[in-house]
Amino acid sequence: MKRHPVIWGILLLFLLLFAFYFLVQGIASITGKRTAFSGANKIGIVDIEGIIKDSGEVVDHLNEFAKDDTVKGVILRINSPGGGVAPSQEIYDAVMELRKRKRVLASMSSVAASGGYLVACAGEKIIANSGTLTGSISAVMYFTNTEELMKKVGVKASVIKSGKYKDIGSPIREMTEEEKVLLQGLVDDIYSQFLDVVVRHRNITSETLKDIADGRIFTGRQAQKLGLVDYLGDKQYAVSMLAKLVGIEGEPVVVYPRKKYESMLDYVLQQTSSSLSAVLSTKQRFSYGIHYLMDDYEVRMMAPGNEVR
Q1: Which residues are catalytic?
Q2: What average pLDDT score do residues 184-205 get?
Q3: Is the Cα dihedral 180, 52, 190, 216 positive or negative?
Q4: Each residue of 151-185: pLDDT tens digit?
Q5: Strand duo 301-302 + 133-135: pairing
Q6: Which of 107, 152, 166, 295 has the most other CB atoms within 10 Å of its CB?
């Protein structure tokens, strides 16, 4: 029978991959390193990165780890200046559900402010770097008025509405005092919900919290002194702490959520690469810098679409 070169090539590739995998496992067993292929107890890492616009992916990752019995605890690695109210609350709720089954700690990176801090409050403990930017416990709504500009360029607009508040926040006219009062009540209620979460999870009274919950930001060290953060340390510090809390002996295996729709070949390559990195790990250099990007825990209404975020 004639050998088909493509089929034999694929078979040879898989044989080489599996041989490489067993080689890595052998080195790991000799050096005492654990790999992501092993059945050892694992610590899951869920990254919350950038402005929080949607909760879907993060919630899916949390649910994935909730169902994985080999994952004994989860680290929320937060590097976010905040974002939308609803998605921040949805992530918070998903973390609270996860805590019914697993231990969860929050680890702050460069910034974990506003909605990012709200999510961090869902962790059993909050760990921040001394230079982390956090806080910004507040709510904000802002609008743009282009009425005068439209007059200068000769543009007129007409509005037909069924209710007097339907075009509230419209950029083509000045907001009335009555409308400002209505929107202030909306912002105050959202702000109150934020305060309730912080008081519920932090050992701090409402009166004390209101003195500092005015939108200001803090460093991680300042936040610790105020009771908004529990410990100072990096991600590895958080991983080591969680490993002790869940009873993992030795160096824990750190895993991340799986990518969607990845093939078996992609999975083998990814896990083999991770395993090899764990065995041959070396020290890395990191730049020391702070990105001053802040985006309040906010509600945005942009007429005429009335987009709320």
Answers
A1: 114, 166
A2: 95
A3: negative
A4: 999 998 889 999 999 999 999 999 999 999 999 99
A5: unpaired
A6: 107
Structure tokens at 199: 């008081």
